């Protein structure tokens, strides 16, 4: 009886978390679509607002969830070693680069290459997890990586290089995740201090854009529009974080693939189009994503059936520990490797 009640509660958490995650994916897509409407506001000015609103959003989240002490606890942990302080600053720079790219791409008609980076990023995480952390990869992981490699190889042969916007996202985000995991700050407290480390630069840039940048001097109303979009984006981030706390890593990884779909859709609605020559790389990456989704879904369904059988036999379904020993991780192999984006502290 207790096992059945536990399974029902877990199902409710997964349902609620899935709804939140899909809502955040739609929200990020909407933000991607709204960003070009801020033109000619510089991406750097948008970044300053994103940093400030992100700090405020995280503080509100900490206050509501009664986790404000996590900020001070994280600071005590960081200051124990000077290298940790340097690493937090470096992590903050890496995260700021991604926030900047999220604004710069759609502003300059390069939303599709940025979206492609978000498609490739989980595959890069799988590869890093395999070779850096010795994760076990399923056979369908290898097929997905092969499809993605074929697409990337085709593009390199075709033009002699690969979109730098795609590489910034596909390689930059995994580097960010690996660095903060190695530093022991792969949690919300770490994210807060990463943003706080960037706050002085943001506060210095705002007067420059307000009084010295000709575009912003001529169009001061852009600050209001940019602030509204940034507040919206930070609210979506909070929803995304809440979903990560409710979902097992495997399901979180699977549903996360909807975000780049909405980003690509936003780029299309903004007027960006694929050329005929670019179709093969996007087709190959799409096949890789479909393989990941299919393999991950089938594995999750098998796991769920096994859990139901155990519950029916009055046994508790076994669960494996996540990277931080968190029992909330599902025993299905995460589709993004063992590199948690948000890790419980």
Question: If you had to describe this structure to a student in words, what would you say it looks like?
Answer:
With 345 residues, the protein is an all-alpha fold. 76% of the residues lie in helices and 0% in strands. It has one domain. The two termini are 31 Å apart. The chain has 13 helices and no strands. α1 (2-34) runs parallel beside α12.
Helices and strands in order, then pairings?
Layout: H1 2-34, H2 43-64, H3 69-79, H4 82-107, H5 111-132, H6 139-159, H7 164-183, H8 188-211, H9 214-218, H10 221-246, H11 249-255, H12 258-269, H13 279-312
Helix pairs in contact: 1-10, 1-12, 2-4, 2-8, 2-10, 3-8, 4-5, 4-7, 4-8, 5-6, 5-7, 5-12, 6-13
Distance between the termini: 31 Å
Number of separate domains: 1
Portion in helices: over 70%
Low-pLDDT sequence parts: 314-335
Structural class: mainly alpha
**Strand content bin:** under 5%
Overall shape: it is globular
Number of helices: 13
Succession of helices and strands: HHHHHHHHHHHHH
Largest sheet: none
Rg from C-alpha positions?
Answer: 21 Å
Average of pLDDT: 85
Task: Find the count of extended strands (DSSP E, 2+ residues).
Answer: 0
Concise structural overview:
The protein is an all-alpha fold and 345 residues long. The chain has helices spanning 2-34, 43-64, 69-79, 82-107, 111-132, 139-159, 164-183, 188-211, 214-218, 221-246, 249-255, 258-269, 279-312. The protein has one domain.
Main attributes?
mainly alpha, globular
């Amino acid at each position: 009886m207790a096992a059945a009640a536990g399974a029902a509660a877990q199902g409710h958490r997964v349902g609620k978390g899935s709804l939140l995650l899909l809502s955040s994916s739609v929200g990020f897509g909407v933000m991607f679509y709204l960003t070009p409407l801020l033109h000619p506001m510089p991406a750097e000015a948008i970044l300053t607002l994103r940093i400030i609103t992100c700090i405020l959003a995280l503080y509100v989240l900490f206050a509501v969830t009664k986790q404000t002490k996590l900020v001070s606890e994280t600071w005590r942990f960081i200051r124990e070693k000077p290298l940790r302080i340097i690493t937090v600053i470096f992590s903050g720079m890496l995260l700021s680069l991604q926030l900047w790219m999220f604004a710069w791409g759609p502003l300059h008609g390069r939303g599709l290459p940025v979206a492609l980076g978000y498609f490739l990023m989980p595959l890069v995480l799988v590869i890093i997890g395999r070779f850096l952390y010795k994760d076990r990869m399923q056979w369908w992981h290898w097929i997905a990586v092969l499809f993605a490699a074929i697409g990337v190889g085709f593009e390199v042969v075709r033009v002699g290089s690969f979109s730098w916007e795609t590489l910034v996202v596909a390689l930059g985000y995994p580097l960010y995740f690996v660095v903060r995991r190695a530093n022991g700050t792969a949690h919300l407290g770490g994210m807060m201090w990463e943003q706080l480390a960037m706050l002085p630069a943001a506060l210095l840039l705002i007067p420059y854009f307000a009084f010295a940048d000709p575009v912003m001097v001529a169009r001061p109303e852009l600050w209001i529009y940019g602030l509204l979009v940034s507040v919206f984006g930070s609210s979506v981030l909070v929803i995304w974080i809440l979903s990560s706390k409710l979902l097992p890593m495997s399901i979180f990884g699977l549903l996360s693939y909807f975000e780049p779909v909405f980003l690509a859709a936003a780029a299309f609605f903004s007027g960006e189009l694929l050329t005929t020559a670019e179709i093969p790389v996007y087709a190959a990456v799409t096949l890789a994503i479909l393989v990941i989704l299919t393999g991950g879904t089938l594995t999750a369904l098998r796991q769920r059936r096994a859990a139901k059988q155990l519950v029916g036999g009055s046994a508790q379904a076994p669960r494996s520990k996540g990277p931080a020993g968190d029992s909330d991780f599902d025993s299905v192999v995460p589709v993004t490797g063992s590199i948690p984006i948000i890790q419980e502290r």
